[in-house]
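Let us work through a complete example step by step.
Step 1: write down the sequence.
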Amino acid sequence: MPKVIKVMLMMGALISSSVWAGQEAARETVIRVVDSFRTEIIADKAQLAKNPELLSQRIDKILTPVINFDDFSKKVMGKYYRRATPDQRSRFVTVTRDTLLKTYSGSLLDLDPDKINVLPLGPQRSGDEVKVDVDFKTGDGAPLNLNFYMEDYGNDDWKLSNVVINNINFGLTFRKQFAVMMQQNRNNIDSAIDAWEQSLKKKS
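Step 2: predict the structure and record it as tokens.
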């Protein structure tokens, strides 16, 4: 075999190994989050069910380090992001963050701590995101499949960029909801954020 071909094959193997290691780092991040769910949320669910404020605090502690809320909010605003002022963007980040934390809070209390399984990495699409699949079961045995989409923000700082729960794409759902609220409020960003915030309060 010509020497140049051997060198190219070796380089290809090194690149593949590096990519695989990065993807595994994304999976390890998800494992740490899931372990925190198990020990800090599910294990104390009887207490937390009676104390929504404490539940929100614990969810915040677990998720905030692994979610780039600025980036996620930008994706949710979609085409309206460029029109928004810095103050509007900042406020939208706060509302989006509260939405995410409240969305996760209630569902986590129903999980069976003994039936949470972070699956091995499957084939990945081209791009910056790594999909990590996690299978859960609720206390009554109902299956719950989560797809965590992780993105590397540099130096293996993997953060959640989107989540799909039982085929419901939360990033896409939020973006559609905000677009509807923009239409209902005649493309007034402040009014649309107000409407979303009021909708969140009704669900809490």
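Step 3: interpret the result. Residues 3-20 have pLDDT under 50 and may be disordered.
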